[in-house]
Every structure is written in structure tokens, then in C-alpha cells.
Amino acid sequence: MNKLLSLFIVLNLFMLLDGTSIAQNWQLDSSQSKIYFSSVKNSAIAEIHYFSKLSGQLNAKGELMIEVDLESVNTAIPIRDTRMKEMFFETQKYPKALITTSAIPSVREILKSQDRRVQTQAALTLHGKTQTVDLHLQVMRISPKRIRVISEKPTFVQVSAFDLDGGLKKLQNIANLNHISASVPVNVVIDFVPYKP
User: Fold this and answer.
1) CA triplet 103, 68, 104: central angle to 5 degrees?
2) CA distances from 95 to 37, 47, 86, 146, 194 (A)
3) What digits encode the pLDDT tens for the residues 10-53?
4) What's the Cα-to-Cα distance from 173 to each of 70, 121, 177, rounded to whole Å?
5) pTM of the model
6) Quick check: 90 and 70 in contact, CB under 8 A?
7) Long-range contact pairs involving 59-62 (C-beta distance under 8 Å, separation at least 24)
8) Euclidean distance between CA atoms 108 and 172, whole angstroms
9) % of the chain beyond a pLDDT of 70
10) Of 4, 42, 85, 197, which has the fewest beta carbons less than 10 angstroms from its beta carbon?
């Protein structure tokens, strides 16, 4: 009888913990998350860069928010990082970018399945402008305590939609380039874990 009672208590404890994970907000794990973007110079040379400092959350309803610290841009060339921050992003005026969407599956649905494909739209706020962008994502349960969101296809961000074409021209001129693509493919790898106060 005591063994049955102990088993009942343990099972209920696991159910309680699982329910708590489902109900609470999930926070972005910055140590396992990056946003990548590519640049194409002179219509031939492609390079991949990334942002390393991200924050955000995924709530139980599937509402997702990601904040990007634009100062964390990493192109593998320090002087180019500085130019990107000062001339292109103008991080002194616009230090952050923000991505929000409410169309991710609920946490309960994600935790029930191994893999969900999502095609939706998000609001991207960048350089003082907010525009709608298309997202093609895979949402995966890595474990009961980890959810991963990755790009299935890149999201193309148009520089002119965010008044960044002037900054792009400055970068092009200072680097003595004939052309830098104004359509920028962006990919995400984002991990979420249960929120810890």
C-alpha cells in the first residue's frame, strides 16, 4: 500500500511539473541562440555574419518575441563590425531590433510533437521602422525542457523598407565596392527553456 501511495505521489509530482512548464513563459537561451544574415558583394562574394546577443520569450499561447542587440553584430572583421554599427545600423540611435509574432504553436502542442513546420508572418522593427516579414520555421521539442526554433527557409529583409539604403551606400563606398545586395537573407537558430526568475 505504501509503495502504491509513493508511486501515486511521484506520478502526480511529474504531472504537476510538466503542467508548470506548459503554463509558464519560456525564455530565450542566449548561449544556444544566434541570428545569421548574409551579405553579397559585387554580385559574387557571399559572407555569413551573425548577432550573438539575443533575448526574448515564448509564452504558453505561442506568442514569440525576440530582441536583437545590434551592437553584437559579428562579421569576423572588427573594423567592418564598427562600420556596420556606426554607418548602417546607427546603433547609437537604434540599438535594438525586435521580432514579434503570435502564430507559433502553443507550448502544449510543441511538447506533444517532435517537429512542427510553421509558415507565418512577423513584425520586424529595425532602424525605427516596423514592417511585416514572412517566416518559414521548424519548431522542435528537443527535450521536455528545451524548444528550438530554426529557419526552414531564409527570411529576406529588404534594406530600403527600413531606410537603410543610405547606410548601405556608405558601406559600399568606404569599402570601394561596386555593389552590395540590398536583399538580405536571414536565418535563426533560437532555443527556449522554461523561465527562471
Assistant:
1) 10
2) 17, 23, 10, 29, 27
3) 444 444 444 445 557 899 999 999 999 999 988 788 999 999 99
4) 22, 34, 6
5) 0.85
6) no
7) 59/25, 59/26, 59/107, 60/22, 60/23, 60/24, 60/25, 60/106, 60/107, 60/108, 61/102, 61/106, 62/102, 62/103, 62/104, 62/105, 62/106, 62/107, 62/109, 62/110
8) 47
9) 88
10) 197
Length of the chain: 197
Residue with cell 527600413: 162
Distant-in-sequence, close-in-space partners of 67: CB < 8 Å, separation ≥ 6: 54, 55, 56, 96, 97, 98, 99
Say which amino acid occupies 120: T
Question: Which region, left, alpha or beta, applies to residue 184 given φ > 0 means left and ψ of -120 to 50 means alpha?
Answer: beta
